Amino acid sequence: MASLRDIRRRIKSVKNTRQITKAMELVAASKMKKAQQAALAGRPYAQLMADMLAALAGRVDESLHPFLVKREVKTRGILLVTSDKGLCGPLNANLFKLVLDIKTPAKFVAIGRKGAQFLARAKRDMVAEFSVNDRVPFADVKTAVEFLVQQYLEGTIDTVEVIYPRFRNTLVQEPTVRPLLPLAGVADFVSHLRAEAGDAKPADNRDMLFEPNAQTVLEALLPFYVNRYIYQIILSAKASEHSARMVAMKTAKDNATKLIGDLTLEYNKARQAGITQEILEIAAASFATN
């Protein structure tokens, strides 16, 4: 049985751990809220761009844009979005399972230190690594996306896909593989985005005039919209990361509280047993002298 001093030390150690995990839980909750607000703030802008693409859908020759031309898939291009830090439960491990399920030739681009380390350990073909901090600057995301798009246009890769933890709610982060390029068609892409965002408003059927012409506008708008779409995906991944870390830290805090209760009970029992033993010794000594 442990001594009273050892039990007191363990109680103090666990209390310090609980204090740390509580602070990390509060920090993660604050960051999660900011990431959610950033994602919601960009939604009206993305929906407006979707409306413009929908208006372009019937006026352009989709076979002229490289994003809309299907090709034989020899090498997949995959953007793996993970966290830079750990302590976020099974979030990254679930994404790594999706990577291990890929048996076809693929080239990977990593956003997040954990993903880059895993790809190196798994000996996957990682062509680039990018870092995006918790503020998620659009310029940092654009650099990574433009690198992937350049690889796609050069023919080095034949698809652009994103593996990321999709934010459902505070308790559920769904590991998702999102095919992005080539697009099945402008109209299908827009309808998919609206269904995903829960946008039930009717389409704008007004006649629009595009200058200099619809094809030129599409060529300028579609690459920018792809950048913006992946930016929204990374915002969702950041919200998932902070949410998973908040839940993991709350679980650790609750476990520490339970352990402190068990140790306190053990300490009281040991102290009570010591007092009882001393009383018995005093009584035995008194009986012996009499």
UniProtKB/TrEMBL annotation:
Protein's UniProt keywords contain Transferase: no
Compartment(s) of residence: Cell membrane; Membrane
Transmembrane intervals: none
Main location: membrane
CDD domains xrefs: F1-ATPase_gamma
GO process terms (BP): proton motive force-driven plasma membrane ATP synthesis
Annotated Pfam families: ATP-synt
Name the UniProt record assigns to this protein: ATP synthase gamma chain
Biological source species: Oleiharenicola lentus
Lineage of the species this protein comes from: Bacteria, Pseudomonadati, Verrucomicrobiota, Opitutia, Opitutales
